[in-house]
Amino acid sequence: MLAPLAIAAVPQKEPAARAAAAFDTIPLEHLLAGHPAQVAPPWGSLLQQKHEAFDHLDASLGRAAGSGEVLLDLLRQRHRTAIEAERLQLELLGPRLMVLGEESELATVRSTVLATSRLLLRTIELEFAAWDAADRETPPALMSAEEFARFAGNRPPLWRCTGHARSGDAEALQRLRWTDYVRDIDAEVAQKESLSRPMRDRFADGGQALMRPHLLVGNDIVLHVQFAAGQRRGIVRSLPTGMPGAADLELPVLESSFGLASGRLRSGGALAVTMRGHAGGGGQLVLTFRATLQPGAAAELPGDLAVLPVGALRSPALLWRQPLPLHQDRGLPARDAEPAVAAIDADQLHELLRTTIGEVGIADTGEFLVLQAAPAALEQAERLVRQLEDRWLRNATVQHLGTVHPAELPASGAAAGAVGASPLHELMLPTLFGREAFAARVLETNQISGIDVQIAQEAAMLDPVVQALQSGCWLRLRLAPLGDAAHCSSQLRCTHATLPQTRTIMPGGGVWMPSELAIGGSGHTGIVRSGQSFDHGEGPSLTIDGRVYRSALATTVRW
After folding, report:
1. What count of other Cβ atoms lies within 10 Å of the Cβ of residue 101?
2. pLDDT by residue (tens digit) across 512-556?
């Protein structure tokens, strides 16, 4: 009878230990939140407001919300001894991490999550600006922060947009103005009745850029860009069709530019795309895309933990091949079914790390790898990622020139800056090896290219056919490293069209706008060396001040 009383009299230590346990919840919303989908810039033409656009950065997919299980697994592995000794318990409680245990263990978990968050959530400032290129020298396609400051000087840009993003998030920066206008006329014909209906649309001027930055080891930044920019030339003139009761058409003339560019920069540097030349082929613009890593609080990780950015190596941006718009009436071309291979698979990267440095704990967020291993192994992992960056993320510059010379001179004697004429066009843009580079500089307007006739019993009406007329240059290029040389695949198309005049060709007010379109261009596939130019032959002919000129086309790549 005394035994149970003796046991009950023994002091119990477990309740005292539980009373000393601490409890906390650490918010993870900032790490787990997704990124919203972004709208791609207009593509191919600014004369129509389209509901669908080509998205070369996969920004319309957004970024899915992260998984807290990835971080939880790493923390459990890191604190395995404390968890097995029941000094620490880790669980997910919605978007928060629940931590229960000794205060010293809680403090360690808090500091680890805070330091990791500061590294994963570093902010990058993005800037998209347009500059008048008429009286400027051609700037470098890849500018350091100092070079950009000298380029900007005291001259204000035509317009400028800024935004902020995390590494790996795409941001749409836009300064577009959409203007309503009457683009076409449709005809409705029924028995003894006919009626015209104005078809309204919108044209745009200004600019929009889709920018996706990726941090690198050492705080360099890889920037992928898709852009569209346009300026209205002159006033929007009206065109009477001559048809009774029909509205006048409106004919805006736009200097439009579209493109894809990429490059590796130091913080504060910028990519510069130059598009200028003869007025018949577009406007005079320099577009700059700048990325600056914002300063933040210092983040001191424990010696056996590292955060390595790998998003630039795994990004699917600019891998699709963009065919050239071979003619206006064919519409916008569809991109290839499969992209070129220029990204590292996640499983391959994990296996490469484990093969190189041995056993390592990996938490993969998609944009970053959080590694747990011995300090020497982490240093080796950082060197491996740096080597991959240096081999896979290499800059190149593409410069395309069209020059003109009098028609009486042979093409072989053509030289840049021929007497009496300015360059036909100049395109310069940066690109990364393995990524798509694309540039289009065009002057576009609408034209009445045909007339349909609608006839019913005792009723008839004319229906004008309106389509876009574009004059300018389109260039697509991709480089692949090949030792000290590179394999280049490119397509070029140049057109020169005069603004069409109206002509009546049918009774009852049938107006037609015949056009003259000179076309030149070619493809190039082969091995090139840095600084080497490859000739595209002759481009379109054009008339300047009543004199006929021939053109010569050449592209140069440098790295």
Report:
1. 22
2. 888 888 888 888 899 999 998 988 888 888 877 778 888 889 999
Quote the tokens at residue 63: 């970024």
Angle at 313 between CA 267 and CA 266, to 5 degrees: 10
Instruction: Tell me the sheet residues that pair with 203.
Output: 179
Question: Do residues 262 and 223 make contact, with C-beta atoms less than 8 angstroms apart?
Answer: yes
Exposed, middle or buried by CB within 10 Å (0-12, 13-18, 19+), for 543? middle
3-state secondary structure of 61: helix
Bridge partners, residue 93, by sequence? 96
Tell me the two tokens of residue 273: 């795309």
Judged by DSSP in three states, 183 sits in strand
- Kindly tell me the sign of the dihedral angle through the C-alpha atoms of 148, 431, 389, 112: positive
Tokens standing for residue 312: 């630039």
Domain boundaries, the chain: 18-558
User: Tokens 């394999």 sit at which residue?
Assistant: 487
Sign of CA pseudo-dihedral 291, 265, 141, 282 = negative
CA nearest 368: which of 17, 125, 74, 82? 74
Q: What mean pLDDT is reported for the chain?
A: 85
Q: How many CA atoms lie within 13 A of 49 on its CB side?
A: 15
Extract the tokens encoding 168: 């790996």
Instruction: Tell me what the mean pLDDT of segment 454-472 comes to.
Output: 82
> Using only C-alpha atoms, what is the Rg of the chain?
31
Burial 57-94 (b: 16+ CB within 10 A, else e): bbbeeebeebbbebbbebbbebbeebbeeebbbbeeee
HSE, CB side, 13 Å, CA atoms: give it for residue 107.
Answer: 3
Measured CA to CA, the distance from residue 342 to residue 319 in angstroms comes to 7
> pLDDT tens digits for 350-364?
999 999 888 888 888
Q: Which of these, 348, 347, 342, 430, lies nearest to 391 by C-alpha position? A: 342
